[in-house]
Amino acid sequence: REPLPHLRVNEKGGIWVPQRARPRRNRKNEGLRSMVRENIVLPANFIYPLFIHTEDYNQPIGAMPGCERHTLDSMLKEVGEAHALGVNSVVLFPKIPDSLKSNTADECYNPDGLIPRAISSIKAKYPNVSVWTDVALDPYSDQGHDGVVSSDNLGDGGKGRILNDETVEQLCRQALCQARAGADVVSPSDMMDGRIGAIRDTLDSHGFTDVSIVSYCAKYASAFYGPFREALDSAPREDSNAPANKKTYQMDPANSREALIEAALDVAEGADMLMVKPGMPFLDIIFRLKQQTSVPIAAYHVSGEYAMMKAAAQNGWLDERTSVLEALLCFKRAGADAILTYYAKQAAQWIQDS
Ligand code: PBG
Q1: Protein residue with least CA distance to atom 9, ligand 1
Q2: Ligand 1 near 107 CB (within 6 A)
Q3: Most buried among 44, 223, 273, 286, by the most CB within 10 A?
Q4: What is the pTM of this model?
């Protein structure tokens, strides 16, 4: 065949597209690819979320294959296995029986409650594992809200309001209780205004200046939390006095500039790290916060994202290992330093195997 007339022919008689810069040269073998690779994901970047309850059996979670509500013994085993694979941080989420729930969620600062007991058992057995806690009322709220609900009808849609400052007081009690039990990091996920500063002052004035605060600073009112709410039985109740959604405190997924305000406030109030949540649909938010602040950024690869990948993998529609490791790497590329993911232990195993 004659070469196409507008292409050239080189000295060896081969086709020559006269193109001097050829980016493919840096991809030609693994030696070069690995030399110029900009990001790497390590087990040390992961925070492993664990669900716990007070029953004496493990309860699988329907929409999260591979995750379950653990007994304290099983939780300890899981922490040990993850730690052996290089995962040094865990975050705990409790399933609380209805009988202990109330509007003011006072069980959240019971020093003999499930979370304080879990924290001290992990610190006793694995002192090098850092224990993160969720600071939020929803697992303890009989309305399924992250805040105390007013009994009036002065809020959104003629329903009750989520009372900001009353909630912050409860969050301070909760964070202090977790710090006393030995938590290394408390992470408020409630989105009330002013809670980072109030929690910092509470911890400091009680002698816990070393306990870190990771703020869920850009937390969106997302549909991707569905499986988590099943795991904790914590969805906003239809019979709540407040609306059965979290839109008056969690952010609108349509917005990004609001995240910059939240970040600036939280850093000024003493947050040690900022969290963006959910993860994959919000990589642009991670990127924008990374430009604006110098504190480390964590990304939450949430329950709905886990469920999607598991479902596709179980159907044979996605290769689980490569697609999950790619998703986690993309968090790093977007600017996340740490990644909270239900895949932490499995991904750490995959990274070790490679
Ligand atoms: C609530 C909380 C939620 C998650 C973590 N903390 C759910 C919510 O805001 O309703 C969701 C995490 C996930 O979906 O994996 N304080």
Answers
A1: 225
A2: no
A3: 286
A4: 0.96
